[in-house]
Write a structure and sequence with these properties.
- InterPro entries: EmrE-like (IPR037185), Small_drug/metabolite_transptr (IPR000390), Small_multidrug_res (IPR045324).
- It is a single chain.
- With 104 residues, this protein is an all-alpha fold.
- It contains 4 helices and no strands.
- The protein has one domain.
């Protein structure tokens, strides 16, 4: 169940990061509400996952996969560029997540 909670937390982490951009400095009400709710839900579901998972593993996977998802969806939603350096970084993060998952 911890991995399910962690997966849900990652979705909220990505929503939080993307929503932060849409708030325009928290000057837009509904994107701001969405962002705050996403942040709270992400931390809550992460805390449920960390009841079982080591904090080093859970938090690293949460932020790592959340970062990759944010960059990929940022490219789709906000037309941000994906460079070779970003792809190499993604692969490094995903590789680290796989090793952490196998070690957990």
């Amino acid at each position: 169940m911890a991995w399910i909670y962690l997966s849900i937390a990652i979705v909220f982490e990505i929503a939080f990061a993307l929503g932060t951009n849409a708030t325009k400095g928290f000057t837009r009400l509904w994107p701001s509400v969405f962002t705050i709710v996403s942040a709270a839900a992400g931390v809550f579901t992460l805390s449920l996952a960390l009841k079982t998972l080591d904090v080093g593993v859970g938090y690293t996977i949460w932020t790592g996969i959340g970062s990759v998802g944010t960059v990929l969806l940022g490219a789709l939603i906000y037309k941000e560029r994906i460079t070779v350096a970003k792809v190499v970084s993604f692969l490094s993060i995903v590789g680290g997540v796989v090793v952490l998952r196998l070690a957990a």
